[in-house]
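Example 3.2
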Amino acid sequence: MIESLSPRILGDIGAALPLWNEMPGHLAGLPQSTAWVRNWQAHANADCFVAALYRAETPVLLLPLEVVKSGPVRLARFPGGTHANCNFPVLARGAANGISRSDLRALAGAIHAARPDIDALLLARQLGSLDGVENPLLHLDKTLNPNPVLSASLSCGFDAVLDRSNAKRKRKKHRQHARRYEEAGGYRIVTASTADEASAMLDRFFAMKTERFTKTGITDVFADEGVRDFFRVLFGQAAGKKPASFEVKALEVAGILRAVIGKSYWMGDLTVEFGGIAEDDLVSASPGEFLFFEDIMQSCSDGIAIYSFGIGDEPYKRDWCNIEEPLYDGMVGFTLKGHAHVAAHRLRNAAAAAIKNNPWAWTAAKRLRGLLGGRHHS
């Protein structure tokens, strides 16, 4: 008979993080790593805790959470909010099959008992499986997230990757843009090798995003200074270290950074966590497209197997990618407000999926968002 699991709530993140090392060979999503959780709690949101399932005195599942306000509702979610993608609990290998729906219900109950101020548990953007292991959190009520993860397999080599979508056109445009950059004063691809370089690149990226989000009327998810400090520390501590974990890379033309991407390396794969371009005189020379071309070519040389563009469906991603992976949102309401929020989230996901699956509706929605944004900020 499988020994039943007992839930525990660990309120002290500093004391809980060493438990990760008590689960040798454990699985976890990148935003569930100790570096991510520690730095998010230190810089972006102090109200974090860990919900755990134990077998006797041994942890088999650790679920780091942060508490946030969303309008009138207080939610527990993965630390990082919308920055946390491809989530997967910290899980002892071999433990997944022994974790039942009732174990997770008991864990949710323990969260509610320890923190009655929380209205709902919202575990968004979860992977269905990691390294061949099913995600036990999907025993909870779930809905399909409207945004998939798009990735490119690189093991076939760069020429074959290019051949997926009009290789001749891609190479021609790349040469044309390189000439534009040379005429403008020369270009280089730079990777931050110190914390100061990482911070400078990130500050340039934050400025690019502020300008972009203002134009399009989208909320700037990088605006909070705590969030910015989180990324500065996360990428700064990793800059120049081998093996690479978090890395900032940029295209510099005439001494000015025109495109910046932040990447993570996790379980043998690479994921683009964020990217931005300067909307200046060289925007028509596609600096973002140019940087991705160079970075994917370099990643092929480095032996990277999977190059993930992360969550979100965009034409430039489809241009490179041959793998589409669904993500799931798990939800548990604790209070009347929480149940209403969960129901609304489910409806929002269904509506967003319907719009995004209709090319005309999706184009119209993006145009409307841009118009509203322009009016709001004029």
